[in-house]
Amino acid sequence: MAALGGDGLRLLSVSRPERQPESAALGGPGPGLCCWVSVFSCLSLACSYVGSLYVWKSELPRDHPAVIKRRFTSVLVVSSLSPLCVLLWRELTGIQPGTSLLTLMGFRLEGIFPAALLPLLLTMILFLGPLMQLSMDCPCDLTDGLKVVLAPRSWARCLTDMRWLRNQVIAPLTEELVFRACMLPMLAPCTGLGPAVFTCPLFFGVAHFHHIFEQLRFRQSSVGSIFLSAGHLIGPVLCHSFCNYMGFPAVCAALEHPQRRPLLACYALGVGLFLLLLQPLTDPKLYGSLPLCVLLERAGDSEAPLCS
């Protein structure tokens, strides 16, 4: 009743014939080799992305406008070429996704509005405590804050700020393209959809360790504070941009805040609501059909839990 699937165990009904992965049916490499190809491809993408940041030799810190502009060029080139890695992976493994490359990577109109709104809403709920802390410490009231946010002059100033463009636009867009849109289709046939969702952030997190050495080099932070902050397509990009704006929650400042009790209550409420709403707001049925499920079916894993 139990059948060995190369990279893991899969329980199959004895009454159903065992279905071979499409790569094997096409005479491609076996599942074990496919997994090695997938992991190596993801590792290559991560190294290429981080390596592109250091092709420009400079003694200036990472927040210097000249450094930021040069790195914009590097990561945009690597991100533009990253879909080619998925195409190469497809040729090496013999797995045919059954859908276009862009659709598989998350570029599709179906379900775009819930994909843009619901994940961002869920992330903002998680950050309920920090948002309340921000509003308490803000010198202006809500009306004045909205005027500033909606003012064209404020947006024009942001669009000419290299740090803002990096943190809110370029980094979320390119990092989600490389570390999620490209890696997830390559990892899913190997690990399954659920584990792949949690594996992609590991590549993303490891790729951010270079910030530690940069900040220590220019003595911008202590080792402890760096480890707390280093590591933070429409939905992930918006959530990524929001998280970059908010930064790591200032829990220590909240503990010393004059309104500590209501603030900590908001922190706890945000985490509780996030856990409560996580499953219903991330239900795949809200976002239309999943191209990754077609990929898994063709790879021989038609019984993935998120696809049933």
Automatic annotation (TrEMBL):
Keywords: Endoplasmic reticulum, Hydrolase, Membrane, Protease, Transmembrane, Transmembrane helix. GO terms for cellular component: endoplasmic reticulum membrane. The chain crosses the membrane at residues 36-56, 68-89, 109-128, 193-213, 262-281. It is found in: Endoplasmic reticulum membrane. GO terms for molecular function: metalloendopeptidase activity. It is a multi-pass membrane protein. InterPro entries: Rce1, Rce1/LyrA-like_dom. The keyword Cytoplasm does not apply. It is an enzyme of class 3 (hydrolase). Residues 164-246 form the CAAX prenyl protease 2/Lysostaphin resistance protein A-like domain. The keyword Hydrolase applies. Pfam families: Rce1-like (PF02517). Its EC number is 3.4.26.1. It catalyses: Hydrolyzes the peptide bond -P2-(S-farnesyl or geranylgeranyl)C-P1'-P2'-P3'-COOH where P1' and P2' are amino acids with aliphatic sidechains and P3' is any C-terminal residue. One of its GO terms (biological process) is CAAX-box protein processing. Belongs to the peptidase U48 family. This is CAAX prenyl protease 2. It comes from Enhydra lutris kenyoni.
